[in-house]
């Protein structure tokens, strides 16, 4: 079963090949029932991408209006004397976000049979997705590229060592407002990626980052990499290979795409990332327990509410886990 997002991308390409008069539109049904459906469409006057939903009744939009989203115009249109809700993208550079939104709506509207239910689903999804279109974020900075590469490398490491693809994608929290980067069933992992030659010093950005409270087991994983101007393991390569692994897991592929967007990675910026390759030098991990050097809310004097600090991993290097023990720690419910 191919992923929804690949299916929708192909549908959009087929619509681009359609010919029509400026006043016409072409539509492709992406999901729904006879009572309520969703369509990907193109308006031939300016070749704007559209999503249409319906049929609906005017009172639905009047009683609970859709949220305003930057770069998207909402409206109503008629087809065969039936009323449809339309969303038109007026920012061509955001087509990747728009098609990913279409995939999310396809997923959420699966099994929906009535206009009221369908409209409410569309509205709830759009409320969440406002942030994707409102961001003014440019291409990832150098440190952001390094951080994302380190997390994607660990995605590969976990998948290559027996943790199911779906479990890894659901566990990846790096793009979310979470204190830790991976929340696996048996362990939580905070990732520190670096291309520096000195790998003994790591920066900790909050009192929560190394706080094991609420976790079954917290590990600090350091991904040390060499950066090269040429090589295969670029950010686009890491992204592409994960997409391939998720090609038969449509829900997890969609979740991965959403998390990529939230991290600031866009396919349209691929050329900016294609020249830098990340070659893994070392992956080492530490169990963050009472003996690991750290600052937490419970360990600092009353009145201190935030802190950024650095840890010298050289001081605890002998306590680092072997690679085999690291994989065992994140993939099983073993006792520490």
- Could you give the count of β-strands? 11
Low-confidence stretches: none
Main sheet: strand order = 1-2-3-5-4
**Helicity level, as a percent range?**
25-40%
Mean pLDDT: 92
Approximately what portion of the residues adopt beta-strand conformation?
Answer: 15-25%
Order of helices and strands: HEEEHEEHHHHEEEEHHHEEH
What is the count of DSSP helices, taking H or I runs of 4+ residues? 10
What is the alpha-carbon Rg in Å?
A: 23 Å
Mind summarizing the main beta sheet? 5 strands, antiparallel
Number of domains: 2
Q: Given the C-alpha coordinates, what overall shape results?
A: elongated
Distance between the termini: 40 Å
Keywords:
single chain, about 325 residues, alpha+beta, 2 domains, five-stranded antiparallel beta sheet, four-stranded mixed beta sheet, 10 helices, 11 strands, about 35% helix, about 25% strand, elongated
Structure, briefly:
By secondary structure, the protein is of the alpha+beta class. 35% of the residues lie in helices and 23% in strands. The chain folds into 2 domains: 131 residues, no CATH class; 190 residues, no CATH class.
Task: Draw up the topology in text.
Layout: H1 4-16, E1 25-32, E2 37-43, E3 48-54, H2 58-63, E4 72-79, E5 82-89, H3 95-108, H4 115-134, H5 142-160, H6 165-171, E6 182-183, E7 188-194, E8 201-204, E9 218-228, H7 235-245, H8 250-263, H9 270-273, E10 277-287, E11 309-312, H10 323-331
Parallel strand pairs: 7-9
Antiparallel strand pairs: 1-2, 2-3, 3-5, 4-5, 6-7, 8-11, 9-10
Helix pairs in contact: 1-3, 3-4, 3-8, 5-7, 6-8
